[in-house]
Amino acid sequence: MCLLVLMACSDNNDTSSEKHIDWQVRKVAVVLPMRYGQQQHWEQTIGMAADGLHEIQKQNILNTPDGSDTQRVKLEFEWFDEEKEDLEQLGEELANRDDIVAVIGGKFSADAAILAAHLCRAHKPLFTIATSEELVRAYASTGSLWAMVESDITQCEILLSRALYYGAKTVSLLANGETLYGKTFVDWIGFQAEELGLEVKSIHDFRNETLAEESRKAAEEDADVVICVSKEVATIESAFQQAGSHSRRLYSDTAHGVDVIEMFGEKAEGIEGVTFGASPETGFDILYEIKFGVQPTHSAAQIYDAVIMLGWALINQVTTPKEATLNDYLKEVANAHIAGACGPIEFDRMVYTTVLSTTYYHYMLYQGRYIILDYISSTGSHRSDATLGAWNWKAERMQEFSDDDNPNISYPALDQKWALLVAGSSGWSNYRHQADVLQIYQILRQQGYDDDHIVLIMEDDIAYNANNPHQGVVQVRPNGANMYHDVVVDYHTSQLKPEDIKHILCGEQSERLPKVIHADKDDNVLMFWSGHGEPGQMVWLDQSSGFTTQLAKETFEAMHAGEKYRKFLCFTETCYSGSVMKAAENIPGILAFTAASPTETSKADIYNTDLHVWMSNRFTATLQDCILNSPDIPLRDLYYKLFINTVGSHVMTYNVANYGNIYHESMKEFLK
User: Fold this and answer.
1) What is the pLDDT of residues 585-619, one digit of tens each?
2) 330-340: pLDDT as tens digits
3) Which fold has domain 417-671?
4) Are strands 272-277 and 537-538 parallel, antiparallel or unpaired?
5) In whole angstroms, what is the distance from residue 240 CA to residue 246 CA?
């Protein structure tokens, strides 16, 4: 945990003993976009860093043995709106002002280039979050440019790695190559895609007036992934409107920020892409939200680190004066390996222009909040050795199984196959849960199950919902097949209670439960559950208590004691699903796959901009694809595919040791 972040969260406002400190004021100019709520975020971020520096200096003075008067640095900031100022004039003014020691800003590459032209000529430090490769190359030799994030060469590579992560074979680029920002992507995507084995279908080099047309062309082209890059937030709206095509759209860092949420609202729901931010190890994002009640905006961590780095350099300049420029002091700080929100702040020791490593977020806008699906860390000169950084990061957490496991577990010959399918939610906003259950239902019917051997539980309020423009149609993908055909719904979710799941699985038929599973020790049972979850339970509609860990344990034990299955295979798509399905541990013949570990949320997938709903979940979409394409897939391979394709949570298995060798056990016994 970064000490400065912790100190910045201090609420200690005691200034009674500051009379011993001679505070030397140093003024810093901040040039960043201020509209759509951004100014408040910048002020909070910079204030958090400055307060931390102030507090540490005060405590250090108070802890000196003699308590003598000592000089220390107090930072003050002068604010300028990047989108309103005449930057040529402002750049010249700031370069010549003696009271301004440094400038933080230039969010946009073209603006940063204007500021750099003036400030670097005057040898005044400019800390920027602009990412153009040409900007860095142009001012690398001046010693005054301090880029707090790697150039977009890295971001382009990370975006392509995300495309590979989703199994893409073809990509297209939608970018304005006329801008300094977009030019990096246009210049580098061909080379990087070839290195990664991807085919670039085309590069749509738009201008503002042609964006809508180029976006439409990209959609019609049907590449697996379209990478969308826009200098201005306002111009990405046209790309949103094409998001219902087959192509998955991945956006660059521009589409991440409080300004996007403020400008577009629900129109932006479901967008995903890559941006840069804090290292998860520092806890910056969490502490920021605790302190201010909101998520940090785009680039907040880099701006925070710029203040930290500049602050330490100024403190050293005041406390240990020598014949050296502020840039020289900054080099010393860079060599000292101090830590900030992004982790260790390290620069190349040849030119000290750009940080050596950046943490990237794979983000998605979900219910008005940005969620982080994965962290991808670059490692400077070694970055190209770990192009698929997210995979390498996740692979360390993948469960391991031995091909020699469980040689003595045996089962009787298979007789019949049964299935229980449950959608635990209701309502239009939860469209995806019933859609996914219906997709599994249709797969089972195709695989030879008859309705007598499937118990289907869903509220059935989606197909003919008033919000559905396609009455009688439920899909799991835009323009996909209708999953709501020849469907026999056995129970509405609201007709049952969570404990009825136990009765159904144990074959306890009654007047209220006429349809149950009549399996015995020679029959296989498959369960698929999609819905919401909380720690310790899979939620049942809006009831306070759902299908809990304890109820799951009682159910599994009763099934085993009553010989109600030969093999029992469970797939659960809920948040915190591992916390419930761990109840299967130590019970013979049961194997559970969960979309998330006991401490994680699972993530929705495939947002339909016409229906304004999520159509599926990533875990389930992968499961469906796997069993459709390979009905006899070994369970070890199924786990592998589910794990690497489910972003934002870790797919878990439970009770492998009491089920069998999953290298040889397969889906064949449940599907064919």
Assistant:
1) 999 999 999 998 887 878 887 777 678 888 998 89
2) 999 998 878 89
3) Rossmann fold (3.40.50)
4) unpaired
5) 13
Instruction: With 0.70 as the threshold, say if the pTM is over it.
Output: no
Q: Are 146 and 125 in contact (CB under 8 A)?
A: yes
Q: Which residues contact 644 (CB under 8 A, 6 or more apart)?
A: 165, 391, 394
User: Across residues 14-39, what is the average pLDDT?
Assistant: 80
Residue that is written with structure tokens 């430090």 in the block: 125
Instruction: Tell me which residue has tokens 């991807």.
Output: 198
Q: Which residue matches tokens 């020679």?
A: 522
Round to whole Å and give the CA distance between 558 and 580.
16
Angle between helix axes 635-645 and 618-629 (nearest 10 degrees) is: 140
Share of the chain above pLDDT 70, in %: 90
Sheet holding 533-534, edge to edge: 533-534, 537-538, 547-548
Q: Report, at the CATH architecture level, how domain 152-278+365-371+380-395 is classified.
A: 3-Layer(aba) Sandwich (3.40)
% of the chain surpassing 90 pLDDT: 56
**How do 170-175 and 199-205 pair as beta strands?**
parallel
Residue intervals in the chain for CATH 3.40.50.2300: 3-149+280-357, 152-278+365-371+380-395
Count of Cβ atoms closer than 10 Å to residue 576 Cβ: 25
Q: Which residue has the tokens 């979940």?
A: 617
Q: Which amino acid makes up residue 486? A: D
Q: What is the rounded CA–CA span in Å between residue 21 and residue 146?
A: 30
**Strands ordered across the beta sheet of 454-457:** 454-457, 417-423, 524-530, 567-573, 590-594, 652-654
Cα 213 to Cα 173, 210, 239, 417, distances in angstroms: 14, 5, 10, 52
In angstroms, the CA 205 to CA 223 distance is 16
Q: Look up the CATH number of domain 3-149+280-357.
A: 3.40.50.2300
Cα 164 to its chain centre, rounded Å, is 16
What would the two tokens of residue 400 be? 């391991």
Domain(s) of CATH 3.40.50.1460: residues in the chain: 417-671
Reported as type and span, the H/E element at residue 184 is: helix 180-196
Q: Is the pLDDT of residue 77 over 60?
A: yes
Find tokens 């979850």 and name the residue.
533
pLDDT over 80 (residue 9)? no
Let me know: does 574 contact 533? Beta carbons within 8 Å.
yes
